[in-house]
Amino acid sequence: MTHIAIPIPTTPGKQDIRIEVTINNQKQALHYKVELFYWDDCQNPQGHRADCLSEMLSHHDPNWALYYIGAPTEKFVPITFVEKSNSRVK
To answer: What is the model's pTM?
Structure first.
């Protein structure tokens, strides 16, 4: 998949993003979501953060694919997912 950077307004917390694109006169709807994964939710908060993140992601909805891991803070890491079923728009 080719990438285009689209600035998204920064808002705190969970974000639900729907984008419609037209490529060669064919429309496609894309659905993204950004969720915050909090370090305090780790089963082993003293462990390595990569292991914690892997554990939290293993329980995530399988209809969504990991798209981007944002810059972590001391409290959380923002993660962007894309919905696996890209629907065509007429």
So the answer is: 0.78
